[in-house]
């Protein structure tokens, strides 16, 4: 848990960062291996983030990892930050974290959460067509309906819901009690059958 709210604050923090290898992350951060035509991002926070968290590493390629590796590392390694597509990864987070641990997670948006983005080549002949189709989807409510159906917006956070792991030494008496109850039931059944005959 931290007070970090922006990408610039994350760049200035001493936290270690891991990134999910998504095309959006490569393009947004303007990394040379994916988009060699861009040398630097126009945003100073993004440039500072790339310089301090990725390029300063001895092995920058180790920063990239799958969400199956990065999410458990956030749980097990305090001070580790993982950049991922959150709405798709929410089910994995809910499976790996306890409910009260989910409340301690902090989310930092790389970009402001606006309505809809589409990646189109800058000089594409379909650029205007895509803009009109996106506008139509927004006005007709198709985008919002599909978003509500397919994308999870937030994690379920319940501060009072603490789950404790209970070992077999605490549950063994319950199983013994259940076995005892079965034995008594079978004895009563045998007694009833004997009396009836």
From TrEMBL:
The keyword Membrane applies. It comes from Procecidochares utilis. Gene3D superfamilies: Periplasmic binding protein-like II (3.40.190.10). The keyword Transmembrane applies. The chain crosses the membrane at residues 174-195. Keywords: Membrane, Receptor, Transmembrane, Transmembrane helix. This is Putative glutamate receptor. The lineage of its organism: Eukaryota, Metazoa, Ecdysozoa, Arthropoda, Hexapoda.
